[in-house]
UniProtKB/TrEMBL annotation:
Record flagged with keyword Methyltransferase: yes
PANTHER family (alphabetical): TRANS-ACONITATE 2-METHYLTRANSFERASE (PTHR43861:SF1), TRANS-ACONITATE 2-METHYLTRANSFERASE-RELATED (PTHR43861)
Domain Methyltransferase, residue spans: 33-138
Record-given protein name: S-adenosyl-L-methionine-dependent methyltransferase
Keywords for the protein's UniProt record, in alphabetical order: Methyltransferase, Transferase
Organism: Lasiosphaeria hispida
Cited Pfam families: Methyltransf_31 (PF13847)
Gene Ontology MF terms: methyltransferase activity
Length: 258
């Protein structure tokens, strides 16, 4: 199922976990005023707009995202040094080579289908000495939301509808290999341990839906989704305490130099 306006708008209200992860990545990138930045998978542009403020009027930020609904929201943020385009990480041909000081990729790489191609594109559009910052879920750690999704989608009623383009969370050694192949030999990867909190199962599922553009349900057809949601809710309820849900997550945070 494609993204919807409702999911895109919903994400702007609940993306504080991704926003904080993005701030952690930005801290490591230590952006200088005047930098030219490309934000890959910018969504509705909350972090992109923040980066525009950090780099100031002498710098600029371009956000790219495949969701026309998210780009439409992003375009409502008008700043002279901020622009947005529909597009994918794997094809940045609208940009010349050696063009950006920084490529910023937050909470997005797992949705990119051809991660190897994308990594090569990041290398192409960066200036020599330019920096690549990536933060996203680690494939070395399976978070509760992945377990619950896999469990429910494997049930008899749903497993005949395989997910067409499932998320791919990279293990550190896979990430290292992609960076090697794209020529990023100078790099540092650290782990950012975070906790995603939600007051209850519905809040957690809404966060997953809006963050994944509806892909929480894999290939399950629309008419079965309310039932699948009910079954996921039952699983979340099992790990809900009187303080709500606390889900541990492990993010891999990469800083690489071209
Ligand atoms: C969880 S959101 C992250 C948005 C934003 N970076 C943030 O940190 O709030 C993931 C975004 O990746 C985008 N996305 C999915 N596939 C992509 C691709 N192939 N190339 C670039 N972005 C993609 C989605 O449309 C979505 O906006």
């Amino acid at each position: 199922m494609a993204d919807t306006e409702e999911l895109a708008k919903g994400y702007t209200f609940v993306n504080n976990t991704q926003y904080d992860a993005g701030l952690f990545l930005l801290q490591r990138l230590n952006l200088a005023p005047g930098s030219r930045v490309l934000d890959i998978g910018c969504g509705p542009g909350d972090l992109t707009a923040h980066i525009a403020d950090v780099v100031g009027e002498s710098g600029s930020v371009v956000g790219v995202d495949p969701s026309k609904e998210r780009i439409a929201l992003a375009l409502e943020r008008t700043r002279p040094n901020l622009s947005f385009y529909e597009g994918i990480a794997e094809d940045l041909s609208r940009f010349p080579s050696d063009n950006f000081d920084v490529v910023f990729v937050n909470s997005t790489l797992h949705w990119v289908q051809d991660q190897s191609m994308a990594m090569k594109e990041f290398g192409r559009v960066l200036k020599s000495g330019g920096r690549l910052g990536i933060s996203g879920g680690s494939g070395d750690f399976v978070a509760a939301h992945e377990k619950i999704k896999a469990d429910v989608l494997s049930r008899e009623l749903y497993r005949i509808y395989p997910e067409e383009s499932p998320p791919k969370f990279l293990k550190q050694h896979e990430l290292e290999s992609l960076l090697d192949h794209a020529g990023f030999s100078e790099r540092e990867i650290v782990i950012n341990n975070i906790v995603k909190s939600a007051k209850d199962a519905d809040e957690m599922i809404d966060w997953l839906d809006t963050s994944s553009s509806g892909k929480t349900y894999g290939g399950i057809p629309l008419h079965l989704r309310p039932r699948a949601r009910g079954e996921m809710k039952t699983e979340w309820d099992k790990i809900t305490t009187d303080k709500g849900i606390r889900m541990e997550m492990e993010l891999l945070v990469t800083l690489a130099v071209k």
